[in-house]
Automatic annotation (TrEMBL):
The keyword NADP does not apply. It is a multi-pass membrane protein. This is ABC transporter permease. It comes from the Bacteria. The chain crosses the membrane at residues 34-55, 67-90, 111-139, 145-167, 179-199, 235-256. Keywords: Antibiotic resistance, Membrane, Transmembrane, Transmembrane helix. It is found in: Membrane.
Length: 265
């Protein structure tokens, strides 16, 4: 009697490429956010209103091309930071409290893919929030930038926004939604004032100017301005941005795995 071995290749698990899963997650997260338009509109309008109310009436700043350009660049950084911290941090914190999240976490998907998809979807809306700031800056101030400087500034802003996105993810995985919103509000304004986004660092007292060099918002501001103005950034700016990126990436992945171990063991 001949014994034949059944062919199990048809039912054996196949390795699913990570890129299609990543793209699918990004698409669904963007659609989910668009279903609540007021959340997107609020994030986009707030930084532009800050420019309109606090910079435009100050003609000494708005009529000076250098100061106006710095103010627009600073509030563009602020727009990205607000969107990253609020949209990503609160979304993750709220999702962890919903029954749908445990099911998603049970799927065989690497943590890096899921976190990177959430970061990418948030980054899309973060950069949409820059558009109103640029429009107000172009129409109501004397800010000026070349086409090359604008593209370079957007590229650098995208890179320097990564720590804010990762920090938002870390807050979302570490705290409940009620705690996350309080921490984000305190952190947002602390980074904004300490990083020179509302008040130029050249007017800081010496102790605050030194302290602000350790803030990711200060690194983002200075590197974005250097790209816009075509100047060479200093070493402390580059080192600070790199250190914050690596530290927040490690923190976000660790908190994700810690949360996964606590809730799904």
């Amino acid at each position: 009697m001949t014994i034949t071995t059944p062919d199990i290749s048809a039912v054996a698990p196949r390795t699913v490429p990570m890129l299609p899963l990543y793209a699918m997650h990004v698409r669904m997260l963007v659609i989910e956010t668009l279903r609540v338009p007021i959340a997107v509109i609020g994030t986009m309008v707030f930084p532009a209103l800050s420019l309109l109310f606090f910079v435009v009436p100050n003609r000494g700043v708005a009529d000076d091309p250098v100061f106006a350009t710095q103010a627009v660049a600073s509030l563009a950084v602020f727009a990205v930071m607000v969107s990253a911290l609020f949209n990503l941090g609160l979304t993750i914190a709220e999702n962890r409290e919903k029954p749908w999240d445990p099911y998603l976490r049970s799927l065989p998907l690497p943590a890096a893919v899921r976190i990177s998809a959430q970061i990418t979807a948030t980054a899309v809306f973060s950069f949409l929030s820059i558009v109103p700031v640029l429009i107000v800056g172009a129409l109501a101030t004397e800010a000026s930038v070349s086409a090359v400087g604008l593209v370079a500034g957007l590229v650098v802003l995208a890179l320097t926004s990564i720590p804010f996105l990762l920090l938002g993810a870390s807050i979302g995985y570490a705290f409940s939604s009620k705690a996350a919103i309080a921490i984000i509000q305190v952190g947002m304004f602390g980074f904004a004032f300490g990083g020179g986004l509302f008040f130029p660092p050249q007017f800081f007292p010496d102790w605050l100017e030194t302290l602000s060099r350790f803030f990711p918002s200060r690194h983002a501001r200075e590197l974005t301005l250097a790209a816009v103005e075509g100047t060479t950034p200093e070493l402390w700016m580059l080192a600070g941005a790199l250190a914050w990126t690596l530290a927040t990436a490690a923190l976000a992945l660790w908190l994700y795995r810690r949360d996964e171990g606590r809730r799904y063991r």
